[in-house]
Each structure stands twice: as C-alpha cells, then as structure tokens.
Design a protein that fits this description.
This protein is an alpha/beta fold. 40% of the residues lie in helices and 20% in strands. It has 7 helices and 7 strands; from the N terminus they run E-H-E-H-H-E-E-E-H-E-H-H-E-H.
Length: 212
C-alpha cells in the first residue's frame, strides 16, 4: 500500500451537500485528486425492463456492487490504475462506458452508504459525514433529479417516501457513528471546509512533488 496516498470518504444522505464539499476540494487540489463514486457501482440489471428497474430499491446496500468498489479502491491505494463502471441514471442501469482512473496523492470516495460497509470504510484514512436537515435534502434531490436525471416530480416524491427516507433512517444515519468528522451543511460550512483543506495540504507537504 502506498503511504503517500490519502483516502478521504465523504458520506451523507441524498442532497446533503457531499458534491459541494467535494467540488470545493477539487477546486483547490484537483490536479492531485482521484474521485471514486459509489453511485457508479450500482448493480447492472440488463435482465429487467426499464419499468421493472424503476421499481428497485436503490437506497439499500444490496443495490451496490460494493465488493467491486472495495477491490478498485484497494488497487488504487496500491498504485494501480482501474477502469471504473459508469451508471446511467436516466435508464436506471449501468452503461457500457468506463472511466479510466489513475491513483493520485488524494483519493475521494463518496456516496450515501460508503460507511455502512466495513471493508470499504477500513480503506479510508479520513471519514467525513455531511449532515443536513431532511427538508433541505429533499428539496435538493427534487431539483437534481428533475433537472439532471429526467425524472418527474411525482416519481421523485414517490421514491423518496417509499425507499429513500426509510433507507436513510435504517442505513445512512446510523453510519454517521463511523465518521471522524461530522460536517453540518457540507461545503457551505466554511470553518469545516478550511480544516479539511488544511489537512489535505499538510498531507501533500509531507511528500515531495504532487504527482505519482
């Protein structure tokens, strides 16, 4: 395992602000950061028609091929390149594309359930949980899914009530106890953001050069 690589996990409920926090980190350190998103590891369901895929529970651990993500993260930590799957939310299925990822000084792992899996969280050096009010998260999810994922307002609310909210309470919220840092309001929390950026900078300063 390459000790010069820092792995940061960013978890939290849907719409909590994980992406905002990650984007702030990328804006500062983008050249030395590789991002691994749990969303891309949703299982492939070619055997089901679109109508049936729409009915699946996408907010429980079984929806993900987390073992593949654990393997890929372990490969990156050991300095190997990987081909990450790509998930297409508009069709509720994994696409045929992949993203070629190379290991860099900082690896960000993000997703709603990344702390729920012990093998995955044990590969992280820093675990950050973004904690945001449920009403705010719902509003953000509606805006994202309608504007970016081709969903209707009715379908978003139905999914939220039937799976997102109960699965958040069953799996996501309890996983907060595994976090080293709990950040209210994600990337908008400037005090926490400054501390996180400072920690990353110290890691980079410990190693000569910014490229592997």
């Amino acid at each position: 395992m390459d000790s010069s690589i820092l792995v940061i996990g960013i978890a939290g409920g849907t719409g909590s602000g994980k992406t905002t926090l990650m984007n702030n980190i990328m804006e500062r350190f983008g050249d030395v950061v590789t991002v691994l998103s749990h969303d891309n590891y949703y299982k492939r369901h070619d055997e089901l028609p679109y109508e049936e895929r729409c009915k699946l529970n996408y907010d429980e651990p079984a929806a993900f091929d987390t073992s593949l993500m654990v393997y890929h993260l372990d490969q990156l930590r050991h300095g190997y390149e990987i081909d990450c799957p790509v998930y297409d939310f508009t069709v509720h299925n994994r696409s045929d594309r992949t993203i070629h990822l190379v290991p860099k000084k900082v690896i960000i792992v993000e997703g709603i359930l990344i702390f729920e899996n012990e093998a995955l969280r044990d590969l992280m050096d820093i675990r950050i949980f973004v904690d945001t009010d449920a009403d705010v998260r719902l509003c953000r999810r509606i805006k994202r899914d309608v504007n970016k994922r081709g969903r209707t307002l009715e379908s978003v609310l139905k999914q939220y009530q039937e799976t997102v909210k109960p699965m958040h309470e069953k799996y996501v919220e309890p996983s907060k106890r595994y976090a080293n840092i709990v950040v209210p309001e994600g990337g908008k929390n400037l005090v926490a953001l400054d501390m996180i950026l400072g920690r990353i900078q110290r890691h980079l300063d410990e190693e000569p050069g910014n490229d592997l």
